C-alpha cells in the first residue's frame, strides 16, 4: 500500500483522498447554503456585538415577550447549551453541541499523584471538533484542551462574534493562546446539582440570565445574598469591596459587567465553596499541568522539589499573562485588580499571606493551592474572575 507523509501524519493515498473528498463535500455544502439563503436585513454578527440589556432594562419588556426571553435564557443556563437547533433562524448555521455537565465521583476528594519530572505534552487532535475534517495548518488549537477548530466552523456555529473570531486568529498560535467555547465557559465545570443551587440564588435575587449588570445591581445582589446567608446587611467596607469586584470584572470601564463574566465569577465561588483542593486539581487538563510544571521548575532553582510561599504566589500571578495581549509577557501588572473573591485565602481579614512568604511549598501543595487560579485563567475575557494573591 502506498503511504504518503503529510505534515507529520502518515496516511495511505486512499485515506488522503477520502479526507480531501470529505472536506470538499463540506465546503460545497456550505457554499450552496450561502447561495440559497435569502437576503437578510442585518448582519449575523450584529446581535452578538451589541451589549446585552441590563437586568433592569429587561424587566421593562412587555410581559409576554419578557416571559419567553427569560424562559429560554433559564433553559440555556440550566442545560449549559447554546441556542437549540430548532431555534436557529438561519438555515446555513451549524448545530451547536449539547454540553454534558460533569458528575461527582467517589474518589474526587482523594489526593492526586501527579509527577513533577514527567511532562505529559498531550498532542492536539488531528481533525476539527466541529466538522471532523483534517486540513493541517488551517486548524486553530485550544490552549486548555486538545481540540482544534476551523474558523469557518466556529463562525457557522454563531458562538463567536467577528471580533472574537479575529482575536482567535491572532492569538491561537501564540504564547498567549486561545480557549475554545468548552474551556472558556467555567460554568460548565459545575454539576447539575451545583448549577441548580446557583440558579435558585439568581432567581431569589431577581438576576435575569444573559443580561448585563450595572454596579447598583451587583450591590443589590450582594446585599440580598448576605441577608440570605448571614442574616445581615453588608458593611460599608464590604460595599467598597463589591465595587472593587465590579471594577475587576469591568476592565474596559464599560459601566456594566458582561453576563458571562458575572456567571464565571459566581461559578468559581461555588467551586471554592463546595469542592476540595484535590477535586479542583482533577479538573486541570494535561496542558495546564505541563504549564504548572514549567513554572514550578523555573522557580525551583536548586532542584530540591520545594519553593517558597512567596514564589508560589508569584507563579499564581503568571497564569493571568493572557490579560496582556500586547507584550505576551509573564510580567503582567495586576495593580488594578480588586478583591474579587471573598472566599480566597488571601481575602481581607487575613494577613497570613503577607507574613508567610518563606513557608516551603512542595509540588503537590503548589498544585492544590494554585488549582483555583489555573481554572480562573481559562476564559478569553480580560476580566479578573478571582482575586489575585497578594
Automatic annotation (TrEMBL):
UniProt keyword Zinc, yes or no: yes
Molecular-function annotations in GO: calcium ion binding; transcription corepressor activity; zinc ion binding
GO CC list? cytoplasm; nucleus
Which parts of the sequence belong to the EF-hand domain? 287-322
**Which organism does this sequence originate in?**
Neogobius melanostomus
User: What phylogenetic lineage does the species belong to?
Assistant: Eukaryota, Metazoa, Chordata, Craniata, Vertebrata
**Matches recorded under InterPro entries:** EF-hand-dom_pair, EF_hand_dom, KIAA1045_Zf_RING, Znf_FYVE_PHD, Znf_RING/FYVE/PHD
Protein name (database record): PHD finger protein 24
Q: What's in the keyword line of the UniProt record?
A: Metal-binding, Zinc, Zinc-finger
- Which Pfam family, giving just one, matches this sequence? zf-RING_15
Question: Spans of biased composition, class Basic and acidic residues?
Answer: 36-51
Amino acid at each position: 500500500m502506498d503511504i504518503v507523509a503529510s505534515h507529520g501524519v502518515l496516511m495511505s493515498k486512499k485515506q488522503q483522498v477520502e479526507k480531501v473528498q470529505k472536506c470538499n463535500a463540506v465546503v460545497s455544502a456550505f457554499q450552496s447554503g450561502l447561495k440559497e439563503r435569502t437576503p437578510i436585513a442585518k448582519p449575523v454578527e450584529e446581535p452578538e456585538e451589541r451589549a446585552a440589556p441590563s437586568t433592569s432594562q429587561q424587566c421593562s419588556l412587555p410581559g409576554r415577550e419578557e416571559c419567553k426571553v427569560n424562559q429560554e435564557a433559564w433553559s440555556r443556563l440550566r442545560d449549559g447549551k447554546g441556542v437549540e437547533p430548532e431555534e436557529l433562524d438561519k438555515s446555513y448555521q451549524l448545530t451547536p453541541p449539547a454540553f454534558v455537565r460533569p458528575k461527582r465521583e467517589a474518589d474526587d476528594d482523594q489526593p492526586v499523584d501527579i509527577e513533577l519530572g514527567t511532562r505529559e505534552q498531550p498532542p492536539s487532535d488531528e481533525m476539527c471538533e466541529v466538522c471532523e475534517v483534517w486540513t493541517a495548518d488551517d486548524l486553530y488549537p485550544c490552549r486548555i484542551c486538545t481540540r482544534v477548530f476551523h474558523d469557518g466552523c466556529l463562525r457557522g456555529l454563531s458562538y463567536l462574534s467577528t471580533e472574537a473570531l479575529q482575536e482567535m486568529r491572532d492569538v491561537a498560535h501564540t504564547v498567549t493562546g486561545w480557549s475554545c467555547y468548552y474551556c472558556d465557559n467555567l460554568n460548565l465545570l459545575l454539576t447539575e446539582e451545583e448549577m441548580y443551587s446557583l440558579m435558585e440564588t439568581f432567581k431569589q435575587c431577581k438576576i435575569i440570565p444573559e443580561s448585563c449588570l450595572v454596579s447598583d445591581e451587583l450591590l443589590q445582589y450582594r446585599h440580598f445574598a448576605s441577608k440570605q446567608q448571614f442574616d445581615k446587611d453588608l458593611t460599608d467596607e464590604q460595599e467598597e469591596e463589591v465595587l472593587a469586584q465590579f471594577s475587576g470584572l469591568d476592565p474596559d470601564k464599560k459601566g456594566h459587567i458582561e453576563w458571562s463574566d458575572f456567571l464565571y465569577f459566581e461559578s468559581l465561588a461555588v467551586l471554592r465553596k463546595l469542592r476540595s483542593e484535590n477535586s479542583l486539581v482533577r479538573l486541570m487538563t494535561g496542558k495546564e499541568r505541563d504549564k504548572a510544571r514549567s513554572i514550578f521548575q523555573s522557580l525551583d532553582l536548586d532542584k530540591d522539589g520545594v519553593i517558597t510561599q512567596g514564589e508560589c504566589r508569584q507563579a499564581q500571578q503568571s497564569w493571568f499573562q493572557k490579560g496582556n495581549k500586547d507584550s505576551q509577557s509573564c510580567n503582567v501588572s495586576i495593580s488594578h485588580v480588586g478583591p474579587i473573591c471573598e472566599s480566597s485565602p488571601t481575602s481581607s481579614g487575613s494577613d497570613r499571606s503577607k507574613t508567610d512568604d518563606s513557608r516551603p511549598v512542595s509540588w503537590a501543595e503548589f498544585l492544590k493551592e494554585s488549582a483555583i487560579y489555573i481554572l480562573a485563567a481559562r476564559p478569553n475575557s480580560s476580566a479578573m474572575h478571582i482575586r489575585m494573591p497578594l
